[in-house]
Design brief:
Blueprint lengths: L6 H4 L7 H21 L10 H10 L1 E2 H10 L4 H4 L1 H4 L7 H19 L4 H22 L5 E2 L3 H21 L9 H18 L3 H19 L3 H10 L2
Antiparallel strand pairs: 1-2
Amino acid sequence: MSFNPETPKAAALNPMPPVVMALFLMIAGVEALFALASIGVLGEGFDASWRFFAIERYGMNTNLVSWMRETQDYGAEHLVRFVTFSFLHASFMQAAIACALFLAMGKMVGSVFSAPAVLMFFFVSAALGALVYCLIAPEAGWLFGAFPGIYGLIGAYTFLLWVSLKAQQAPAGKAFNMIAMLIGIQLVFGIFLSGRLLWIADLAGFLGGFTLSVLLLPGGLARLTQALRRD
């Protein structure tokens, strides 16, 4: 798909890419099942505890990764968690925020990149975020939610915006305002409220998306080289 310096601005006017809608429906669909289970609509055996069972069965846990490294057991039932954790959330509110942010960033990125590229941004960035999180914070515990993958999309959009600003000879540092603000907020909440280190997974996802965009955007490496030469 073609790219020009105005692409990041024009992308907001494009229709929602089908691949983005498909992923959105998967994320929202899982949350809808949890919501229905919590009010007893799905019948006996399906209640509010079903969410916690799903997180335990399909979420990512740093202890599991440590165990995999120690035992050299990399079975599919363990590796699949690097994908499935992205569809699980702690609450309806968390899922709603994730869906809104995913649709916004997915539309911007999906209007420029191909459907396979969007899938790679989301899933590869999510898996990378989970892996880095587990390696840096091996005692941190559970990781779940779509945010590491969403940050991968933010990384891709940041690359597009950065190249665009460079081409226009505008201050390219503005491209990183969004990620700086989001990570800053996460650091404040992590340090003073939750005490968790989830920002590690999100930042790794962002870096993964930014790097992938260089490889997946036609002429991306050449654009990166040209942009760096303008400094």
